[in-house]
Amino acid sequence: MDYILDDLQYHFDLNVLVSKEYIAFTIFIALIICNFICLKLDVKQKLINIFLIGYMYIVFSMTVLMRIDKEPQNTARLIPFFTLINYCRFGSTITFWLGMLNILMFVPIGILLDKRKLIYNSGKRYLIICSAIISFSISIEALQYYLRAGVCEFDDVLMNIIGGLLGIFLNIILDKKKHFLIKCLVKG
Questions:
Q1: Integer Cα distance of 116 and 183 in angstroms
Q2: How far is CA 64 from the centre of its chain?
Q3: Which residues pair with 74 in a beta bridge?
């Protein structure tokens, strides 16, 4: 657990917050949020969009932007299930917790993407949501490699996708429970 605390302190170096890349990305996100505010959506959908972009911004900042120039690495680990193999072989709890954090980090993204419900055809909607989760995860890993901001790992993409899918399933379950409770309250 000390590694996780050290990693969080490592991520929150305030000198990074004034870098050109970080300021440019902050302006970009502000423009996107303004764009969503101008769209003709109801208040709930606008809030969901703002929370989604804000959360994705936090994830992107912690995984890419705040790591630039820390310990430059231009490494790609494209071996599938390397994390799981490393955990099973050496019992590395750090590896296990990093995998779990990658999963947990994408659960809110899956929930928020599913809550948007901009497309009501569920098959097409889930295909678009899964594509967005995969694209976001791959872009993080590719930028980590390109900007030398961390190790580009195939397992991170897999864990992120699992987290996004868990978020979608969690949202589906919560929606069904909500509808069930409403039916019970209306009948009772």
A1: 23
A2: 12
A3: 150
Q: What is the pLDDT of residue 158?
A: 94
Per the DSSP assignment, residues forming a β-bridge with 153 are 77
How far apart, in whole angstroms, are the C-alpha atoms of residue 60 and residue 16?
13
User: In the predicted model, what is the mean pLDDT of residues 79-95?
Assistant: 76
CA distance 52 to 114: 10
Structure tokens at 188: 């009772």
Residue range 153-170: mean pLDDT, rounded: 94
How many residues in the chain? Answer: 188
Instruction: For the full predicted model, state whether its pTM sits above 0.85.
Output: no
Return the H-helix or E-strand segment holding 77.
strand 73-77
**Residue 86: DSSP 8-state:** H
Residue 34, classed as helix, strand or coil, is helix
Measured CA to CA in angstroms, residue 183 lies from 64, 130, 170, 177, 186 at distances of: 45, 30, 20, 10, 5
Residue 130: strand, helix, or coil: helix
The domain ranges of the chain are: 2-187
Place of tokens 């295909």: 127
pLDDT for the residue 6: 60
Pairing of strands 73-77, 149-153: parallel
Is residue 105 scored above 90 in pLDDT? yes
